[in-house]
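Notes to self after the Tuesday call (sharing in case useful).
The group wants a holo model before anyone commits to mutagenesis around the pocket. I volunteered. Ligand is adenosine-5'-triphosphate. Logging inputs and output together so the record is complete.
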Amino acid sequence: MLEVVNLTKRYGGLTAVNDVSAQFRKGHISAIIGPNGAGKTTFFNLIAGAVAPTQGRILLNGEDITGMRADQVAVRGVARTFQSTHLFDSATVMDNLIVGHRLRTRSGLWDVILGSARLRTEETLCRRKAEESLEFVGLSHIADRLAGDISQEERKRVAVALALATDPQLLLLDEPAGGINPEETVSLARLIRKLAEHGKTVCLIEHKMDMIMSLADHIVVLNYGAKIADGPPDKVRANPLVIEAYLGADYAQA
Ligand SMILES: Nc1ncnc2c1ncn2[C@@H]1O[C@H](COP(=O)(O)OP(=O)(O)OP(=O)(O)O)[C@@H](O)[C@H]1O
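Result:
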């Protein structure tokens, strides 16, 4: 469903992403791994339309989306989460979701001023969507809690719920399990699997190798911006280039 071809991003003399080609299949979970500074976040920024590539093409369901703006890419079914989840801590979880979903809908200033029918319909729709996505991520029971009072793992789940606002086909998750404990990591992995089971294509950046190896169908390894391996977890963890650049011999034998 997503294909990148010879994707390159240069910042002056530095090549953050270097001639990367890869395919991401519908309903699969793919992981982008690699050392710090390997180009993983830049890769996400390119797909999401946050930065334009220097070279190469990005195809989403066969449509060339290269160089489109982030909002144009989002409308076509791509959503993302970020390493840290920014929420309004003094508002409830539900209000955060309603606001998040609201920002992703169409009413303009005039609709708000005139209290248009479209605005009212959208408000109802936003609340319903917010409730649905909260239920999907397993957080209905904390809808009325203040966002500032919820755990780090719950924040990670809220981030996924926010990303679901646009009914995305492809979710780009940047370190979804960053900063949470091993038990919570297992439970978050279950949520990611559930996304795929519901037909979503998932692409994640993650440093937690145990999680990735048991969760991902497909792994792309970046090093200094270039792809050094691409394949199923077993094949990738046994690849000498990956062991040398990232995993280390201890992990490969574990
Ligand atoms: N806007 C920018 N301007 C200049 N250089 C940049 C910019 N964004 C990223 N870079 C550089 O591109 C390279 C890749 O960075 P990127 O953040 O994509 O790596 P990463 O694999 O996501 O790293 P990490 O795991 O630390 O998040 C780095 O050397 C970084 O300094």
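Two things stood out.
The pocket of adenosine-5'-triphosphate is lined by residues 11, 14, 16, 34, 36-42 (CB under 6 Å).
The two ends are 33 Å apart (CA to CA).
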